[in-house]
Amino acid sequence: MASKAGPRCFQLVRHVDVSGVSGTGVVAEGVEWTDGSVALHWGGRYPTTTVWPDGIDALVSVHGHNGATTIRWLDE
């Protein structure tokens, strides 16, 4: 869960593009809110924002591709 000090910003960094869709490098930006929920914003041609009420672990379980994509915390 996020710190009670406030929201934490992060980038979703793709090291290997398993799906062949998003490429590598920073593929999305996000915020982890103080209640643990996450908002994730994908850039690119069709920008999209998704909400992950179950938090960062749920997001990484779907988009992490077994370590091919990681979280880079910006506020630490």
Category from helices, strands and their pairing: mainly beta
Helical percentage: 10-25%
Individual helix count: 1
Order of helices and strands: EEEEHE
The value of Rg in angstroms is 12 Å
- Unreliable residue runs: none
- Counting DSSP E segments of at least 2 residues, the number of strands comes to 5
| Beginning-to-end CA distance, first to last residue | 15 Å
User: What would the principal axes of the Cα set say about the shape?
Assistant: globular
| Strand fraction | 35-45%
Q: Mean pLDDT, nearest integer? A: 87
The largest β sheet comes out as: 5 strands, antiparallel
Kindly give the count of domains: 1
**Which sequence of strands runs across the widest sheet?**
4-3-2-1-5
Defining traits:
globular, mainly beta, 76 residues, 11% helix
Written overview of the protein:
The chain has one domain. The mean pLDDT is 87. With 76 residues, it is mainly beta. The longest helix is centred in the last third of the chain and has 8 residues. A five-stranded antiparallel beta sheet has the order 4-3-2-1-5, with helices on one face. It is globular, with a radius of gyration of 12 Å.
SSE layout and pairings?
Elements lengths: L7 E7 L10 E8 L5 E5 L5 E5 L3 H8 L5 E5 L3
Antiparallel strand pairs: 1-2, 1-5, 2-3, 3-4
Please summarize what this structure is.
This protein has 76 residues and is mostly beta strands.
